[in-house]
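[job 4471] stage=fold_predict status=RUNNING
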Amino acid sequence: MKQYIFILTIFVFMMNLAIAQEMESINISDLTLKEKIAQMVMVRGAKYDARFLDLGIGGIFLDKQSSEQTYKNLVNSYQKNSKIKLLVATDMEGYWNPFPFYQSKNFKEIKNKEEAYELGKEHGKILKQVGFNFDFSPVAEEKNTVWPGRSFSGTHEEIKEKIAFYIKGLQEQKILATAKHYPGGSMLKDPHWFKVKAEISREDLELFDYAIKNNVSSVMVGHAIVSGELNSNGKQSTVSEEVISNLRKNFNGLIITDAIGMWGLKWSYLFKPEKLYPDLVKAGNDIILDTTYVLSNHQRVKQGINAIEKAVLSGEIPEERIDDSVTRILDTKNSLQ
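[job 4471] inference complete, writing structure tokens
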């Protein structure tokens, strides 16, 4: 009996190793155009849905599960059935805590950079043990009139240091950190419901520059319509090539949209929803975060992927633009192996 169990254990290990090696061996040349585009989409995976994997989506966002084991089972189901390793993300900021089994300090409660480092390390350990590899944190914004606990407090220099040390603690646990919401202004008014306009200062941009200098893996672009030190020319930052090209000058990591189901962006696409996905790609985003409960369904995502494919085939979007993002995504996934 012991011998049988030993043989079975070895067999399972070898199968898992084979699956891992198969994931590692996939590169951009192995993918069709549609599969490449799908790698640029992250969806809400609240319940296991194999149809998203059939599309070849690149990542899932999870929150609001009932227990640690539920999270683990869901992540495992998605990963073992995905052709390519998935980015698995959540919002672990402390203020917004996705886990019912864990209580966290929020950012406003953090007194110094040492505490920021310890919080990042603690968040990273919990995320890792549950199966995540990506965290949409920290918030790198100083101006905050809507959710005080989501941003660090103190002088400008103290806030910069707290952001940097949180990133360090989180990424030491092999969890991708995300500085959000570039270029600032996303917490002056709730973009889930309203269009947001913001005047951007040099100090706003410095917070993100400092996060980049401290090796943050990704930057999330917000939906604020900005002017001042950086101008989005009347469009939301997520669909502004001017904003994202400025970010890309000094940053070669992943650029991800804020959730595209927010009304702060949707108001501008009510009568042209088919243009949203292509506009997000043309602006320079690597990953489209389509996680709204009501609208993040299989059909919506499929239509979005098809709209980008159509734009590429017509010459509206160069395929090299897709390849640039997908190469970055696959390189990031390989770094997580």
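[job 4471] summary: The radius of gyration is 20 Å.
[job 4471] exit 0
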